[in-house]
Amino acid sequence: MHISGPTAGRRVCAAVIAALVTCSTVLTGQIIAQAGGSTTPSVPAPKLDWRPCVPGSPFDCATAKVPLDYDDPGRRTIELAVVKRKATGPGRRIGTLLFNPGGPGGPGTVQMPQNYEAFPREVRERFDIVSWDTRGIGSSTAVNCFATPGEATAWNAGKPAGVPVGAQQRAAVFAAYKDLARRCQRRDPELLRHVSTADTARDLDGLRRAVGDAQLTYLGISYGTILGATYANLFPGRVRAMVLDSDIDPQAWTNHASDADPRLTTFLRMGSDRSAAAVLDRFLTLCGSTDTAGCAFSAGSPKATRDRFDQLMRRLRAQPVGEWTYGRTVADVVSGLYIVHPGWPDLAGRLRDLWQGRVPKASPLPPPPLVPHPDPYLGEEQASAVACGESPNPRDPAAYHAMEEAAAARAGDAGRFWTWATVACVSWPAVAADRYRGPWNRPTAYPVLLVGTRYDPATPYADAQALAGEMADARLLTHEGYGHTALINPSSCVKTYESRYLVDGTLPPAGTSCRQDEPPFPAPKPVGGVATGGGGMAGPAH
């Protein structure tokens, strides 16, 4: 979950979420009539002409044509780029798992192939896995507010990176996003009004019909959880199985379905600042509990490592290291907490380099997936079009400095980061024509499985608890670990429960928790025959 900042770049990795008796329901082959579905006018299912994405690719690609406006489906159509990996178990295929990688703005045609091996083995065997770039994003009909790539680069270079520091930088940020809003309004104002989560939920139902499934089997991570919750309440009778990993509180997302001027930004309402601060504290504690061989930024103890981090942040405010300003570093730290391996050791290495006054080396990019457009344009305006069009954010620039200071008082540097993550919304020129804002408790044909990670820097565990309380029939599986989404911070235990649920509907027992497979940092090697403690993953949080 990330609206603006360094993770919205090239070849993103995901980036870039409870009864004492096991409930078992056999889903395969059963068809339940829709219970109180949507009143959307009848629209034919899109046709998917599958072909190998590129010669030799194990993935197939297609283009789906869907209405821009489902209330007026005969007028303008847009295109969705779609990708598929066929089920690998001959004769054992159940159907199709539709996957959304989050964002908003995650390009599924890139991120599903990149993360394909992260899906549970049995899921890969039993389901075709299909993903897509949602409307407005990537290789689909996309929001693009610049005439040339050079214009986009120049605009991005004209504002401070990450968190602005001081009145002059804050003014520059507001001016840049006001300019972006003007550009977007000129380019395609109609598209800006039709990239909402509700629009995408209707696309998702069209894709379900296009692949021939009577009901939806779905995995959504991060922003994909609000998409899943929206689908489940628009089309409750069409839910076969739905896993929502790293969940968003729908009341926070919609500002409690209110258009009143909100006091806080979307992410501050969600509590992302507090959650990120807690994860950063665990990162520094675990780093300081091992030696520099285990964590490059370790200062020998948790307290000394936290003190070193705070000192580094103060130093960078006064004197950047090359282009590594305080603002850029804070953004890098928060996004660096998303993926534990290799993200946390890599982040520790960058912090060590900055501490020593060196410009960190760029992290290697993941290999490009075998798809036609492995590096689509993913400008900030794409995610902003979705989030700003439907999730209320303060519109008064004067409110942001006080809001930032209040967030910093409760969450430190992470509070500053999450305050500014939706700053594009201050000037955003469009409101979504089709916003779903509740209710969130319509009974689904089958129960929904939620996965919440205890230490998640973007979507707090409390949001997973909140979504579990909102939905009519949802079971929460707790991932006792770190990072953003269990899918890319794996737990074999979580994968086992997800597989059972997706294949035959068996839910984990209420209150079930799973541990992460690997600790973030290794324990230090014993010295003189006496083991030194720390470094492994802490036990369940209290």
Which short descriptors sum up this protein?
17 helices, 542 residues, alpha/beta, ten-stranded mixed beta sheet
Note down, in words, how this protein is organized.
The chain is globular, with a radius of gyration of 22 Å. The protein is built from 17 helices and 10 strands. A 10-stranded mixed beta sheet has the order 1-2-3-5-4-6-7-8-9-10, with helices on both faces. It starts with 50 loop residues before the first strand and ends in a 27-residue tail after the last strand. It has 542 residues and is of the alpha/beta class. Helices cover 37% and strands 12% of the residues.
| Strand order across the largest sheet | 1-2-3-5-4-6-7-8-9-10
* First and last CA, distance: 25 Å
Tell how many strands the DSSP assignment holds.
10
Beta content comes to 5-15%
Any low-confidence stretches, pLDDT <50, length ≥5?
4-39, 529-542
Shape: globular
Query: Radius of gyration in whole Å, from Cα?
Result: 22 Å
Largest sheet: 10 strands, mixed
* Class by alpha and beta content: alpha/beta
Average of the residue pLDDT scores: 91
Helix % is 25-40%
Give the number of helices: 17
Short note summarizing the structure:
The chain has 542 residues and is an alpha/beta fold. The protein is 37% helix and 12% strand.
List the helices and strands and how they pair.
Layout: E1 51-52, E2 60-67, E3 77-85, E4 95-100, H1 108-114, H2 121-126, E5 127-132, H3 149-157, H4 166-187, H5 189-192, H6 197-210, E6 216-221, H7 223-234, E7 239-245, H8 250-254, H9 266-270, H10 272-288, H11 302-318, H12 326-336, H13 343-355, H14 380-390, H15 399-420, E8 448-455, H16 461-470, E9 474-482, H17 492-504, E10 513-515
Parallel strand pairs: 4-5, 4-6, 6-7, 7-8, 8-9, 9-10
Antiparallel strand pairs: 1-2, 2-3, 3-5
Helix pairs in contact: 6-7, 10-11, 10-15, 11-12, 12-15
